[in-house]
DNA sequence: AAAGCGGGGGC
DNA sequence: GCCCCAGCTTT
């Protein structure tokens, strides 16, 4: 007996989340943008960034015509920067062919659109009866059917289960709502910890609940330990207080984004003399800042230290000079932390913008660092 | 099949 | 501190 699509849709009509991209009815550009931003990223993090992105790039044609530097700046801080590179390439492909394809196969062929996003856009923007398998749907399906096989091996089985539920006539009548109902069930009731089974429209037929193992599903393969890596970065300020930034290589970690010049990141720490070989200009009075900036990546923990110097007038070196507030906006989070470290040490001519604090605040003194 | 790829929030 | 998040691409 299938879990009732009709029961789930009735629950959805009463309890669905009000999300801004759900007001963009059948606009594939806005729905696609939301889906890409939501890849491994929470609704709370995406919401303000989705609005801001659309203010700057209201149409897919406008996004396609924009320079990469503008797209990178708009994506800075959101993470997984290959998404931004693929987003830009996808916008150009869509513009060239005169609009979004309306089938799973057509969408799947575009840059940055995998099995999940192709199904999500097809279902939500074009009402195709396909179920995208995301973390929510994995959780709901594995619990309802008490699937104990661990991920990722169980993924094909879970996808087939969810797609089978779509075969009911109530789901076929409202494919976009049915998949979003599955998302909302997973996000608000069938949560990773402490699922609210008593409120669930599917509690009666849930085999995981019956067996008392729902909260422990889906099972997952154990994850590898994260090593620590070290890097030394260079904060070079010119006579106007601007900072030297460089564009990172187009692929790899933080690919295509701006950053402070620095050493490679490796598991062995760096001696200062050794690091100086990577300085933008070696023959300057580089001074170490006390402390370090830490940043957690998915697969390693990074500890960065900072050397600072003042650039002589008319210095010529590769890179761009950015005023600190604009730099903080354009940098990925890991690099932003270095600016925060420098500000804390009083090494910046102007403060790095931060969340507003109550009450008046003493300005960092302008001029020579203490 | 496994690894590389960010950042933030909840507990 | 650990886990998870509307995953995709490359090897």
TrEMBL record:
GO molecular function, one term: 4 iron, 4 sulfur cluster binding
Reactions it catalyzes: Hydrolyzes free adenine bases from 7,8-dihydro-8-oxoguanine:adenine mismatched double-stranded DNA, leaving an apurinic site
Residue stretches of biased makeup (Basic residues): 359-370
Gene3D superfamilies on file: Helix-hairpin-Helix base-excision DNA repair enzymes (C-terminal), Hypothetical protein, domain 2, Nucleoside Triphosphate Pyrophosphohydrolase
Region (Disordered): 346-370
PROSITE patterns: ENDONUCLEASE_III_1, ENDONUCLEASE_III_2
Classification via SMART domains: ENDO3c (SM00478)
EC number assigned by the record: 3.2.2.31
Protein origin, superkingdom: Bacteria
Family: Belongs to the Nth/MutY family.
Protein name listed in UniProt: Adenine DNA glycosylase
Limits of the HhH-GPD domain: 37-188
Necessary cofactors: [4Fe-4S] cluster
InterPro entries in UniProt: DNA_glycosylase, Endonuclease-III-like_CS2, Endonuclease3_FeS-loop_motif, Endouclease-III_FeS-bd_BS, HhH-GPD_domain, HhH_base_excis_C, HhH_motif, MIG/MutY
GO BP terms in the entry: base-excision repair; mismatch repair
Annotated keywords: 4Fe-4S, DNA damage, DNA repair, Glycosidase, Hydrolase, Iron, Iron-sulfur, Metal-binding
Reported function: Adenine glycosylase active on G-A mispairs. MutY also corrects error-prone DNA synthesis past GO lesions which are due to the oxidatively damaged form of guanine: 7,8-dihydro-8-oxoguanine (8-oxo-dGTP).
């Amino acid at each position: 007996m299938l879990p009732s699509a009709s029961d789930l849709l009735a629950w959805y009509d009463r309890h669905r989340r009000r999300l801004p991209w759900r007001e963009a009815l059948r606009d594939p550009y806005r729905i696609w943008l939301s889906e890409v931003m939501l890849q491994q990223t929470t609704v709370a993090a995406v919401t303000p960034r989705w609005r801001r992105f659309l203010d700057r790039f209201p149409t897919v044609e406008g996004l396609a015509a924009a320079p990469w530097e503008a797209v990178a700046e708009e994506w800075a801080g959101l993470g997984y920067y290959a998404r931004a590179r693929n987003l830009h390439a996808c916008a150009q492909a869509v513009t060239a062919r005169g609009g979004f394809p309306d089938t799973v196969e057509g969408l799947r062929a575009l840059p940055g659109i995998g099995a999940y996003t192709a199904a999500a856009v097809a279902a939500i923007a074009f009402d195709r009866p396909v179920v995208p398998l995301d973390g929510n749907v994995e959780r709901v399906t594995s619990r309802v059917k008490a699937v104990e096989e661990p991920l990722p091996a169980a993924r094909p089985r879970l996808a087939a289960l969810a797609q089978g539920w779509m075969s009911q006539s109530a789901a076929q009548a409202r494919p976009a709502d049915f998949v979003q109902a599955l998302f909302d069930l997973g996000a608000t009731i069938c949560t990773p910890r402490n699922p609210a089974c008593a409120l669930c429209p599917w509690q009666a037929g849930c085999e995981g609940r019956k067996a008392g193992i729902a909260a422990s599903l889906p099972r997952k393969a154990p994850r590898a330990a994260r090593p620590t890596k070290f890097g030394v970065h260079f904060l070079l300020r010119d006579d106007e207080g601007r900072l030297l930034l460089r564009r990172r290589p187009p692929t790899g970690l933080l690919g295509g984004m701006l950053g402070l010049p620095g050493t490679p990141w490796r598991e062995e720490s760096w001696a200062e003399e050794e690091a100086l070989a990577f300085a933008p200009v070696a023959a300057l009075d580089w001074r170490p800042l006390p402390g370090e900036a830490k940043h957690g990546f998915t697969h390693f923990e990074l500890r960065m230290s900072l050397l600072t110097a003042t650039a002589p007038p008319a210095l010529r070196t590769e890179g761009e000079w950015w005023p600190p507030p604009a730099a903080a906006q354009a940098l990925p989070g890991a690099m932003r932390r270095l600016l925060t470290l420098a500000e804390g040490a009083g090494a910046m001519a102007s403060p790095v913008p931060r969340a507003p604090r109550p009450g008046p605040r003493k300005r960092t003194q302008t001029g020579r660092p203490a």
